[in-house]
């Protein structure tokens, strides 16, 4: 009985090894083979307008503590901000920054961002990149992680360097330049 179990075990192992080998890369259909990874650099401007008759970002939540906080800690904003080629709001539209950000710092103005950069123009039309991370908004230059993407940016990872181009302290409106490097 033990010999027959051993023989069955050996036959099963050999059969499973052949089955696993059938999934080797060279045996895969061309459409399933992984493509060579690409590095892409993108530059655009993010226009965050919280004032006026037609804001692109609106407050959706705040705590009772927010009014006492110098950093507006606890405020959550929902955004659908235009992304343009240049800092002028009338420059060519390349996409939309859609998502939310909230004030996450009690002692410094830092935002937690969960944002999709949805592109509407050029080779990345219909594709998006996802940003999730801390944005120290008052730092002149800051780095944020790119944690994913869709379309031509599927499986993207990388980083975004954000630099404030213009900020109105009275209204809270801002224009931020983004330089993004992603591997996808």
Provide the CATH architecture.
Beta Barrel
Low-confidence stretches: none
Strand adjacency order, main sheet: 1-3-4-5-6-7-8-9
Shape, per Cα inertia axes: globular
- Provide the gyration radius in Å: 24 Å
Ends apart, CA distance between termini: 54 Å
Report the average pLDDT across residues. Answer: 89
Number of domains: 1
What is the CATH top level name? Answer: Mainly Beta
Order of helices and strands: HEEEEEEEEE
Structural class by helix and strand composition: mainly beta
Main sheet characteristics:
8 strands, antiparallel, barrel
Portion of residues within helices: 10-25%
Number of strands: 9
Give the CATH superfamily.
Answer: Allene oxide cyclase-like
Main location: secreted
Organism: Jatropha curcas
Signal peptide: 1-22
Family: Belongs to the plant dirigent protein family.
Structure description:
- The chain is mainly beta.
- It has one domain: Allene oxide cyclase-like (AOC barrel-like).
- The chain contains 1 helix and 9 strands; from the N terminus they run H-E-E-E-E-E-E-E-E-E.
- Strands 1-3-4-5-6-7-8-9 form an 8-stranded antiparallel beta barrel.
- A hairpin with an 8-residue loop joins strand 5 and strand 6.
- The radius of gyration is 24 Å and the shape is globular.
């Amino acid at each position: 009985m033990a010999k027959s179990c051993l023989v069955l075990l050996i036959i099963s192992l050999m059969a499973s090894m052949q089955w696993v080998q059938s999934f080797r890369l060279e045996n895969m259909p061309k459409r399933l083979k992984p493509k060579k990874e690409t590095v892409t650099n993108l530059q655009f401007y993010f226009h965050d307008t919280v004032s006026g008759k037609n804001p692109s970002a609106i407050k959706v939540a705040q705590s009772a503590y927010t009014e006492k906080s110098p950093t507006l800690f606890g405020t959550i904003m929902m955004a659908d901000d235009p992304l343009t080629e240049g800092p002028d709001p009338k420059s060519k539209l390349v996409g939309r920054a859609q998502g939310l950000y909230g004030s996450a710092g009690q002692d410094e103005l830092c935002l937690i961002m969960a944002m999709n950069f949805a592109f509407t123009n050029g080779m990345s039309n219909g594709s998006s990149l996802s940003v999730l991370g801390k944005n120290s908004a008052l730092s002149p230059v800051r780095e944020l992680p790119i944690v994913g993407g869709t379309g031509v940016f599927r499986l993207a990872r990388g980083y975004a360097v954000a630099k404030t181009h213009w900020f109105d302290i009275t209204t809270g409106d801002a224009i931020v330049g983004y330089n993004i490097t992603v591997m996808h």
